[in-house]
# Entry
Amino acid sequence: MKDKFISIKEAMNKGKGKVSIRGWVYRERKSNKFIFFVVRDSTNIIQCVIKNENVSKEIWDAADKVLIETSLKVTGTVRKDKRAPTGYELEVDDMEIVSYAEDFPMGKDQSYEFQLDMRHLGLRSRKLTAMMKIRSTVFGAIHEYFRGLGYFEFQSPSIVNSAGEGGSTLFTIDYFGKPVYLTQTWQLYAEAAIFALEKIYTIAPSFRAEKSKTSRHLTEYWHAEVEATWLDFEGLQDLGEGLLKHIVKSVLEKHKEDLEILERDVSKLEPTVKKKFPRMTYDDVLKLLKEKKGMDIKWGKDLRTIEEDKLSELFDTPVIVTRYPKEVKAFYMKEDPENKKVVLGYDAIGPEGYGELIGASEREVDIEELKRKLKAEGEDPEKYKFYLDTRRYGSVPHSGFGMGVERVISWICGLDNIKDAIPFPRTMTRTNP
# Structure
């Protein structure tokens, strides 16, 4: 076959006439007179029909041996057909088998764990393909947003000597006989780099050794982080809100068909683009949850999943919750000068029970206060010497945040489990495939 091949989407857009496509058999059905293939490529699927009376015996016999995931090239006439899965059918008059497939092990009735075991093949499903396309756009939108604001992309080490968030969630690795750790965040290194570049961001893997088996946690996830000098707390909230709006707007503009495949109700995403996010303090949240949800939460406790979920039920956009008690937040968060019990930090809580999307704060600049907090958390300030040096030589006010990219993808796609927001999930119990 020497025809010029076009994508399935291009063939459907053409709507009629002779076309040549190539891809993989997604579904197949056979009888004595007809063989039906649903063929997929990265753009869409299309039903192909082979009529016994219209093709050679060689083509018919080859088609009769085809199983799901056989790769092939076909030429034929495309036309509209309301009965076909995507509204078009291709009547085949020539076909070339590229590679026959064996019996495909994936099906509808296998357990979720089996599907994860076979994720290397499961990626071919329409829903995971749709997710991966949206995921690509999410990553691109993050780059586009920050670069559009004049931020530089900056990378930091994945192998580190100290904790950025909490020592109990560190992965220890043997580094030529010396114990070191996989990074939880780029932040400590970013706070060194801002004194050169001023405004920086990254998208990189982070690692958390949390012994969690929930549908919201991964041990390896992609972390979008930002750090900037001269960025105050209000500006930090605006930056996070703007990022989430830009991401959702980009997906809604580019992925109508993919969101339909995922059966996502886009009306639940549109308010994020159109509305200003509610902003409230931790104290406001406790009062609101008591009034609206009958939840009596003791002041000083961090908001757990259940509280975040109940809060998200009251709004149709992310909610920015500010000024948490300092005891439940990281050592680098700056105290609120108007209330020493809380920090100038916020979490952006996703709607529909998707939890924390962004964790942010203005950074503490006082060296002695940082040392005190590190000791209070059982950390040795000597391990943070390079970090403390950033406060010794011309420190300035600065702020930053981290966003879990898979959390955002889960919410946008309406996924039940964060494991379906990444091609190959890593969890407490899963390192394969």
